[in-house]
Design brief:
Layout lengths: L4 H9 E4 L5 E4 L2 E4 L5 H10 L9 E4 L16 H17 L2 E3 L9 H7 L8 E4 L13 E4 L2 H10 L1 E4 L3 E8 L8 H12 L7 E6 L1 H4 L3 H9 L8 E3 L4 H7 L9 H8 L12 E6 L6 E3 L7 E3 L15 H11 L14 E4 L7 H11 L9 E4 L4 H9 L2 H8 L2 E2 L20 E4 L14 E4 L2 H10 L11
Parallel strand pairs: 3-4, 3-6, 4-5, 6-7, 9-10, 9-12, 10-11, 15-16, 15-18, 16-17, 18-19
Antiparallel strand pairs: 1-2, 2-8, 13-14
């Protein structure tokens, strides 16, 4: 019997399998940031031990950092203390830190790939659920809790049970105006925010293979939003070309590629569950509720209790009450107050280029506040080198400094209560972007339309 991509990587990293229990899994790369690492380092310090393999740990500051005036002290006390703790802990334990002011600082799931640290066949963990992003390179990558962060810091291993296997196949060509964020929001709308719970999800098919690496990262980033333990895409020439020449790419690159070419699911590999979707059915998508599975086409109408199953009815009513939306109403034309383009889902240079190409020569709506937050200092520098910052400035936008920003209410960039925000991030939970904030998840293109018009619109109605 053939093996799946996940199984090939998993078996190479199992140190020991406990009978009737989890496996001891070796971790190649451990990313840390300021939020989930302080307690883990405290645990090490209490036990009087050091990080076991500091060269395999990479740190950055992202969740709590401001995205304006990063040269000044952080205003929020808790955020400042967490960033200071990260600096102290990394110094004491010999861990490489890309902190504020460093040219490599940025969102952890942006800097790993752009530096060439993320590579096919790896096991990668971080105290952050969206570590699944790195699976776009054909790696097993998943988020862990603080106690597990301490476990990896102290042993470079992790106790973990092997998940079930799912494959999601998307075949065909994408329609005009449809991008990777629409693909994953469409999948979520079909299988729900719990449809992949307990599974490692491999994304496959011609529509997936046609995507750039940055677009693939968007897909894998949101595999956690369907309940998946991780998401993977088999590496190919697109993957190899992306990694080549990056700072931490393998020195013997041809040898590495020869090994990476073995990382694919065999034709007779067995999956516990499979889904098949036609790319032609996917339209620009947007969410209307309070989990990422509550999505519809931008031309669609909000579901009613008559059109959904019994178990979802109470959830629909609760979500719409929070969102201030009505059953059966069209989502197109819905007024928005804020537009956030950023997060580990959509803050890479391709995302910024996409938005800049659309808004060039246009002006933002006067009653909309637009936050453009690059995923890293390298993305910020590249955007400036290409003149993207000038395009944004002329449109009335401001290119801010790197950080997680308005993805979550953990820093200064919060959406006020009751206000609507079209966001390119990954979660629309109640209060996720600030207490009482109302979030509609969408692609960078759909967000750009809202920035210009002040309401939900269909990008296909514009020249592209």
């Amino acid at each position: 019997m053939g093996k799946s991509l996940f199984e090939k990587i998993w078996e190479r990293h199992v140190v020991k399998t406990i009978e009737g229990g989890p496996s001891v899994l070796y971790i190649d790369t451990h990313f840390i940031h300021e939020v989930t690492s302080p307690q883990a380092f405290n645990g090490l310090n209490k036990r009087g031990i050091k990080v076991f393999r500091p060269k395999q740990t990479v740190a950055t500051a992202d969740h709590n950092v401001p995205t304006l005036n990063q040269h000044l002290p952080i205003k929020e006390e808790l955020s400042r203390k967490q960033v200071e703790a990260l600096i102290k802990n990394c110094s004491e334990h010999g861990v490489e830190l890309y902190g504020l002011g460093h040219p490599y600082q940025g969102i952890v799931h942006v800097i790993g790939p752009e530096l060439g640290i993320t590579q096919p066949g790896m096991t990668i963990v971080c105290g952050d659920s969206h570590t699944s992003t790195h699976g776009a390179f054909g790696a097993i990558a998943f988020g862990i809790g603080t106690s597990e962060v301490e476990m990896v810091l102290s042993t470079q291993c992790l106790l973990h049970s092997k998940p079930k296997l799912m494959r999601i196949i998307v075949e065909g060509e994408l329609n005009k105006g449809v991008v990777s964020k629409d693909i994953v929001l469409y999948i979520l709308s079909k299988i729900s925010a719990s449809g992949a719970t307990g599974y490692a999800v491999e994304f496959a098919g011609s529509a997936i293979r046609s995507l750039s690496m940055e677009a693939r990262m968007t897909i894998c980033n949101m595999s956690i939003e369907m309940g998946g333990r991780c998401g993977l895409i088999a590496p190919d020439e697109t993957t190899f070309n992306y990694i080549k020449g990056r700072k931490f790419a393998p020195q013997d690159f041809d040898k590495a590629v020869a090994e990476w070419k073995q990382l694919y699911s065999d034709a007779d590999a067995v999956f516990d569950k499979e889904y098949h979707f036609d790319a032609a059915d996917i339209q620009p998508m947007i969410t209307y509720g309070t989990n990422p599975g509550m999505g519809i086409p931008v031309t669609g109408t909000i579901p009613t209790t008559e059109t959904i199953n019994e178990t979802d009815k109470s959830g629909l009513n609760k979500s719409l009450a929070y969102m201030g939306l009505e059953q059966g109403a069209p989502i197109k034309g819905q007024k928005v107050d804020y537009v956030f383009i950023g997060s580990c889902t959509n803050s890479r240079i391709e995302d910024l280029r996409m938005v800049a190409a659309f808004v060039k020569g246009k002006q933002k709506a006067s009653d909309v506040e637009v936050w453009i937050v690059p995923g890293s200092k390298q993305v910020e520098a590249q955007a400036k080198a290409e003149g993207i910052d000038k395009v944004f400035e002329e449109a009335g936008f401001v290119l801010r400094q790197p950080g997680c920003s308005a993805c979550l209410g953990m820093n200064e960039d919060k959406i006020p209560a009751g206000k609507y925000c079209i966001s390119t991030s990954n979660r629309n939970f109640e209060g996720r972007q600030g207490a009482g904030a109302r979030t509609l998840l969408a692609s960078p293109l759909t967000a750009a339309v809202a920035a210009i018009t002040g309401k939900v619109g269909d990008v296909r109605e514009w020249p592209l």
